Amino acid sequence: MTNGAYPQIRMRRNRRDHWNRRLVRENNVTVDDFIWPIFVAEGQGKKEEIDAMPGQFRWSPDRIAEAACEAADLDIPAVAIFPEIEKAKKDPDGSEALNPHNIVVQAIKAVKAEAPDIGIVCDAALDPFTSHGQDGLVREGYVVNDETVEVLCQQSILQADAGCDVISPSDMMDGRVGQIRKALDEAGHDHVRILSYAAKYASAYYMPFRDAIGSSTFLGQGDKKTYQMDPANTDEALREVALDIQEGADMVMVKPSLPYLDVIRRVKDTFQMPTVAYNVSGEYSMLKAAGERGWLDYDRAMMEALISFKRAGADAILTYSALEAARLIQCGYEG
After folding, report:
1. Pairing of strands 251-255, 47-49
2. How far apart are CA 184 and CA 151, in angstroms?
3. What is the pTM of this model?
4. Do the Cβ atoms of 186 and 263 come closer than 8 Å?
5. How far from chain centre, in Å, is Cα 104?
6. How far apart are CA 174 and CA 187, in angstroms?
7. Contact 68, 111 (CB under 8 A)
8. Percentage of the residues of the chain whose pLDDT score is greater than 70
9. Would the CA dihedral through 280, 53, 316, 23 be positive or negative?
10. Of 33, 30, 36, 27, nearest to 315 (Cα)?
11. In 10 A of CB 24, how many CB atoms?
12. CA 181, CA 250: separation in Å to the nearest integer?
């Protein structure tokens, strides 16, 4: 027998019923939050599963609109296009990035033709196109900054000409947002937005993605620590974000997400800018692998990860789980 006055405050009351939990929920993940990354590869009639990323595919340009239409049917706002370039087309300067008929351009046009109302995001970076796997031009063993930015500006204009809605500089070169903004405006693309990879860390979580675009083999034992951020730093992230905002970024991104929830929170609290969390390939693949082995419930773990990004302050989430999450949400999934 307990004292009738104990306890007066019962936190569990608001957890008792489904309707009450919905009523007091502080954060929600909706379909409106998602950008779905899709991979385009050379060839015809291709839909090829990516070994390191179960459930994700490389699509040829003639079929990639199928993927975009699937996302549009689920009311996902945007897709991000990432290319796998044939080995023969890679060179030290990533010249295929400036080919007006490359597979990224083909993919943009195909998606716009079949799903005109979905947003298209494209990276400004050279790593899919270079024979060394780095995001920029290498001179005497070092990834040079200003010369790389000149190429990124040309790449951005090419993609905008094809119909890309959002240019997303992922290279982490200094000053590239301002130069790309200027180049887009001068080319008549003042409406094209810039989503900057403002705080992109030199992370171990990118390996499945690098396999998907074919850059891991070319990068070999190299790394990107001279331009991507040190995982130990957060103050530096705020400086990076501040610079990109000053240079004209419309949205900013933190990449990866799960190990950097604190950075997402600091960025959102400091700048109150549209902030995107990139739920990267390694995060996706490790949950998939654990789910396939029965070590965890994949759907629950995936949705828990997505809500953690919203809780940390993200306005949008670039995630390979977008289709799965959208279907669950449509079915009224609570978790």
Report:
1. unpaired
2. 13
3. 0.94
4. no
5. 16
6. 22
7. yes
8. 97
9. negative
10. 33
11. 8
12. 10
How many angstroms separate the CA atoms of 235 and 226, rounded?
A: 17
Phi, psi of 119 (to 5 degrees): -75, 145
Residue 197 to residue 257: CA distance in whole angstroms: 12
Residue 50 contacts residue 56 (beta carbons within 8 Å): yes
Average pLDDT value for residue range 97-119: 98
**Start-end of H helices in the chain:** 18-24, 64-73, 103-114, 146-162, 176-186, 207-213, 216-219, 235-246, 261-271, 281-292, 298-312, 322-330
| pLDDT over 60 at 105, yes or no | yes
Please classify residue 40 by burial: count the beta carbons closer than 10 Å to its beta carbon, then call 0-12 exposed, 13-18 middle and 19+ buried: buried
- In CATH, which of 3.20.20.70, 3.40.630.30, 3.40.640.10, 3.40.190.10 is domain 28-330? 3.20.20.70
> β-strand 138-139 against 142-143: which pairing, if any?
antiparallel
Return d(Cα 178, Cα 194) in angstroms, integer: 10
Instruction: Give the model confidence (pLDDT) of 84-101 as tens digits.
Output: 999 999 999 999 999 999
The string of pLDDT tens digits covering residues 269-281 is 999 999 999 999 9
What span, in angstroms and rounded, lies between the C-alpha atoms of 184 and 191? 9
- H/E stretch holding 263 reads helix 261-271
Task: Please state, in angstroms and rounded to a whole number, the distance separating the CA atoms of residues 6 and 36.
Answer: 50
Task: Provide the token pair at 110.
Answer: 């195909």
Whether residue 1 is predicted with pLDDT greater than 60 in this model: the reply is: no
Residue 284 near residue 321 (C-beta atoms within 8 A): yes
Phi, psi for residue 167 in degrees, rounded to 5: -95, 130
Q: What integer pLDDT is reported at residue 333 of this predicted model?
A: 84
Catalytic residue annotation: 200, 255
How many CB atoms within 10 Å of residue 323?
Answer: 19
